């Protein structure tokens, strides 16, 4: 598929999605938003893709909604049917909404934050499975400075990642923080030099594609994202059921075989 505002490439088992409006700091438009969801769906359904890297072109990751579109955005657009369509009918409704669909993707999403991640740019990063930041990255919620509120579930997600105190600080002050402060509060997994960011993110994607079972990754991603809605007993019951299925899988057979035979794994994802 040809895209206008993103770049979509596949190298081996890794799909890389690049937000491509560098002249506007990759600010979101309806076109970019639609293309991003299409690309995530495409990567999720591609049997050869095992991990997804999301980054931005130029000096920013995503500066939020494009102000020219925000100025004329009808209030009811937030709940427009085109944005609320189901991503995966087998996943919780919580992960079917406009920006919360990354957790419903069956492949891990690695967010390589190359520069500013503000507003909706931060929201996208929060819904990713991994966040690797360039040493030039900066983060801000931005909503309070625009007269808005904590959008798209960020009031639920942000405290679960950085804790209530940090979330309150970031949301109510809208202040910018740099990559090192983000690392200190647990907002990102690691910080790397800017010229190594994409290579580091893609290396992690290759590890997830080759060194561990794609089937295990797929199931564990689902367990992690659904656990906040479960009691301990429910999580244990689900894990026991999934354990039976994993022992029956091809990847379990290969996981034992490559260890015993002392050779690289050849996981099928089944």
Automatic annotation (TrEMBL):
InterPro entries reported in the protein's UniProt record: ClpP/crotonase-like_dom_sf (IPR029045), Enoyl-CoA_hydra/iso (IPR001753)
Organism: Variovorax ginsengisoli
Family: Belongs to the enoyl-CoA hydratase/isomerase family.
Entry-linked SUPFAM superfamilies: ClpP/crotonase (SSF52096)
EC main group: lyase
Coiled-coil blocks: none
Record protein name field: Enoyl-CoA hydratase
GO molecular function: enoyl-CoA hydratase activity
NCBIfam families reported for this sequence: PRK06210.1 (NF004857)
Keywords, sorted A to Z: Lyase
